[in-house]
Amino acid sequence: MATTKTPPPRHFLTLRDLAPEELRRMLRRASELKAMQRRGERYQPLVNRTLAMIFEKSSTRTRVSFEVGMAQFGGHALFLSPRDTQLGRGEPIEDSARVLSRMVDAIMIRTFEHSKVERFSAHSLVPVINGLTDRFHPCQLLADMQTYLEHRGDIAGKTVLWVGDGNNMCHSYINAAAQLDFRLRIACPEGYEPEAAVLQAAAGRCEILRDPIAAAEGVDLVVTDVWASMGQESEQAERARAFAGFRVDAALMSRAHPEALFMHCLPAHRGEEVTAEVIDGPQAVVWDEAENRLHAQKALLELLLIGEVAT
Ligand code: CP
Ligand code: NVA
């Protein structure tokens, strides 16, 4: 029997899986898909296609945006939790990848160790999407960068301030700085810096600073995130002490450029990493940012499952 060799699937585990120009095109496409949806245009390129979604951590935005995106595209999404699949009973990740990828067309995973999505993707016959790991959250960056583009235009040459933990979101901002050519100031307490290996990816574009107020001087975008990420609940009190001086408040925002935006991937803790005045204030674009998860991920699914779409 003649066998045809299928090309290996394209995965999206970090932003670096996209070429910079491809990322820029995808952001424009996301806004176009958003406009089409608003006009009530029916566009269903994924009829009969299925996305499996494995969630080993909680989610509101990621789950709903992928599920709704697949529905709008005419396809279907399948929610899988370790509580009621064999993954939770110790079936090897490699075997789960082999089995699932023979039945579905793409797989999204939210988990703890980044190495888990790498191992999964190495054994998957279909595209694997990182829906958040302890090290990266690339889907959120698609939405953030789309949001910046829609409100202020190209982010190239701008200065972004990250305030807080050198966590998965911070790592993804570092990758975005490299891909989209912006400067990134990271204001974090000692001991909570991003990984050196990740920083290296954007060497020359990032700097670590200790005074968040001074770091805010003239920046175009201020971003923060929770002080204790999922899986770090036991460190909550210790982290609250370490990050006490790293709250985004009106005083910090007043040092930024007058047109500066504020973003937060959500969920947020008002009174901890950000004051209510800022997150509910005029510079915050957090609701657009949350909505854009839907549009940006539709553009991602389109690219991974159909290929380049002429825009
Ligand atoms: N921002 C984000 O990923 O939200 P969820 O945890 O609700 O998916
Ligand atoms: N850093 C946060 C992001 C949540 C979307 C976490 O990992 O919990």
Q: How is this structure best described in words?
A:
There is one protein chain. Helix content is 39%, strand content 13%. The protein is α/β, with parallel strands linked by helices and 311 residues long. The model has no long low-confidence stretch (mean pLDDT 96). Bound molecules: phosphoric acid mono(formamide)ester (CP) and norvaline. Norvaline (NVA) is lined by residues 132, 137, 167-169, 225-226, 229-230, 265.
Provide the fold topology.
Layout: H1 20-38, E1 50-55, H2 61-72, E2 76-80, H3 93-100, E3 106-110, H4 114-122, E4 128-130, H5 138-152, E5 159-163, H6 168-180, E6 183-187, H7 196-200, E7 206-209, H8 212-215, E8 221-224, H9 236-242, H10 250-253, E9 261-264, H11 276-279, H12 286-305
Parallel strand pairs: 1-2, 1-3, 3-4, 5-6, 5-8, 6-7, 8-9
- Pattern of helices and strands: HEHEHEHEHEHEHEHEHHEHH
- The helix tally amounts to 12
| Proportion in β-strands | 5-15%
CATH superfamily of the largest domain: Aspartate/ornithine carbamoyltransferase
Shape: globular
Ions, cofactors and other bound molecules: phosphoric acid mono(formamide)ester, norvaline
Q: What fraction, in percent, of the residue positions are helical?
A: 25-40%
Q: For this structure, what is the CATH class of the largest domain?
A: Alpha Beta
Name the quaternary structure: single chain
Structural class: alpha/beta
